[in-house]
Amino acid sequence: MWFWILFFLWTLLPVWRQQWLHMQRLRAIRQLEKRRGTRVITLIHRQETISFLGLPLRNYISIDDSEQVLRAIRMTPDDMPIDLILHTPGGLVLASEQIARALDRHPARVTVFVPHYAMSGGTMIALAADEIVMDDNAVLGPVDPQLGQYPAASLLDVVANKPISEIRDETLILVDMARKALVQVEGFVRERLRDKLPPERAEELAKILSSGRWTHDYPITVDQLQEFGLPVRVGLPVEVYELMDLYPQPAQRRPTVQYVPAPYDGPGRGGRGR
């Protein structure tokens, strides 16, 4: 009897823990909203333990995400600024573009906070903001389109360096799609940059970000982004870091990173004696 009671409680423990985290997140979001006078929206993709078996779920920007974000934007008054906390490896181009366009159309100021990274589709969303606020070690990434496992730019290189007669029909179809995708993404990025940079600079930067100059996981640092002329600054509110702590990675039997979870005031604090 007691065994089954304990087993039942053990299986419910992850559900209770997830509900507690959910309430803590809402409380943290509300506190940040009150301090800044904004609508705070989070788009955070982490691996979380969400079932009683402890199986992690890998997330990316999906249509479900775009539906939720667009709903939050519609519920925001035109004169209320929006703060979007963005932490993502990227995802579907369609969903990313929908979110970016909705943010671009919002009349009040839009700020995107990037505590760690916002790659690919995340970068497309960040470019729609009036200001991007980042941790000094955070990064964005290129937005060159990918067709399955192949970069679109690399597919174009195939037909540029190999006779057409030696290329399979399936590859030629992919190349045609790649050419269209590059044009579409470059045009989308140029549109997002039209009010932030002079026309010639916006054209140049749109091509840099979308043309496959770098690998798709290339980290674009704060310094590079500022050199591009984008509205980027360093200095995240402490509430953003506290909110990220409420999105834990799944527990492992042996942690790969460990440290004393407390800030130190300076060299020698609490450690080496004379």
Write a structural description.
The chain has 274 residues and is an alpha/beta fold. 46% of the residues lie in helices and 13% in strands. The chain has nine helices and eleven strands. The protein has helices at residues 2-36, 63-74, 93-105, 121-126, 152-161, 169-193, 199-210, 222-227, 238-244, and strands spanning 39-44, 48-49, 56-57, 82-87, 110-114, 117-118, 131-134, 139-140, 146-147, 150-151, 232-234. α1 (2-36) packs antiparallel against α9 (238-244). The relative contact order is 0.13. The model is unreliable at 48-57 (pLDDT under 50).
Structural class determined from secondary elements: alpha/beta
What integer is the average pLDDT? 87
Largest sheet: 5 strands, parallel
Strand content: 5-15%
Number of strands: 11
**What gross morphology would you assign?**
globular
Measured distance between first and last alpha carbons: 60 Å
Low-confidence stretches: 48-57
Radius of gyration, CA atoms, in whole angstroms: 22 Å
Please count the helical segments.
9
Spatial strand arrangement across the major sheet: 1-4-5-7-11
Give helix % range. 40-55%
- The run of helices and strands is HEEEHEHEEHEEEEHHHHEH
**Oligomerization:** single chain
List the helices and strands and how they pair.
Elements: H1 2-36, E1 39-44, E2 48-49, E3 56-57, H2 63-74, E4 82-87, H3 93-105, E5 110-114, E6 117-118, H4 121-126, E7 131-134, E8 139-140, E9 146-147, E10 150-151, H5 152-161, H6 169-193, H7 199-210, H8 222-227, E11 232-234, H9 238-244
Parallel strand pairs: 1-4, 4-5, 5-7, 6-8, 7-11
Antiparallel strand pairs: 2-3, 9-10
Helix pairs in contact: 1-9, 2-3, 5-6, 6-7
